[in-house]
Amino acid sequence: MAFAPASQFPAQGHGTMMMIYSNASPEAAVARKIAEAHPEIVMQFSDFQQDIRDGLLRERLLAMLSGFFGLLAAVLAMVGLYGLISYVVARRRNESGIRMALGADRAQIVHMVMREAGHLLLAGIVLGSVLSLIAGRGVSSLLFGLKPYDPLTLMASIALLSLIAALASLLPARRAARLDPMVALRYE
After folding, report:
1. pLDDT band at residue 123, thresholds of 50, 70 and 90?
2. How far is CA 155 from CA 83, 124, 149, in A?
3. How far apart are CA 23 and CA 79, in angstroms?
4. Positive or negative torsion for Cα 157, 158, 161, 166
5. What region, left, alpha or beta, does residue 148 occupy, with left being phi > 0 and alpha being psi -120 to 50 degrees?
6. For the segment 28-67, what is each residue's pLDDT rounded down to a tens digit?
7. pTM for this entry
8. Where residue 143 falls among pLDDT bands split at 50, 70, 90?
9. Cβ–Cβ under 8 Å, residues 85 and 168
10. Considering 17, 106, 107, 130, which has the largest number of Cβ atoms within 10 A of its Cβ?
């Protein structure tokens, strides 16, 4: 589609499209003037900005679906990490009880569990970053106006994943810190 002055196209034929720039609604005034001069002409008006929005509807829908599935993936990662850390805390209940019986305070137990989660997070960040850089190279031809190696996006996703991991690990860590040492020692 090209936009040019009408004087460049003197032999305009059937199905000519024209663009009228106006702050007011041009439909009534233009339709009246053209109907007075040429009543046989059939006119149809549309808003150019609305045509652009309608043309991008599919892309916007795909972007919204991608965002939804990204959010769903984040929730699944949080639930999975929560389950894994809860399982590790339950398996190490005896160790936590012994540590508390020997004088470890609640903050040290929370720190121990969060450190374990941090090791898992670090492994996930390294592996995920490498895989995302490899995948970015593979899909670079499909990206228009985007860089496959955007450091800001990579850092934002790492920060988001770190926040998710911290939230998912905090509840099991606090539960391990509230454990009564005598109950934990009797458990095994």
Report:
1. very high
2. 26, 14, 11
3. 53
4. negative
5. alpha
6. 777 778 788 888 877 777 777 888 888 888 888 988 999 9
7. 0.63
8. confident
9. yes
10. 106
Which phi and psi angles does 19 have, rounded to 5°?
-115, 130
Tokens 């955007």, located at residue: 150
Query: Distance between CA 172 and CA 96 in Å, rounded?
Result: 12
The predicted-structure confidence for 77-87, as pLDDT tens digits, reads as follows: 889 888 988 89
Nearest to 74 by CA among 38, 128, 111, 35: 128
For the beta carbon of residue 128, count every other beta carbon within 10 angstroms: 14
Three-class HEC string of the chain: CCCCCHHHCCCCCCCCCCCCCCCCCHHHHHHHHHHHHCCCCCCCCCCHHHHHHHHCHHHHHHHHHHHHHHHHHHHHHHHHHHHHHHHHHHHCHHHHHHHHHCCCCHHHHHHHHHHHHHHHHHHHHHHHHHHHHHHHHHCHHHCCCCCCCCHHHHHHHHHHHHHHHHHHHHHHHHHHHCCCHHHHHHHC
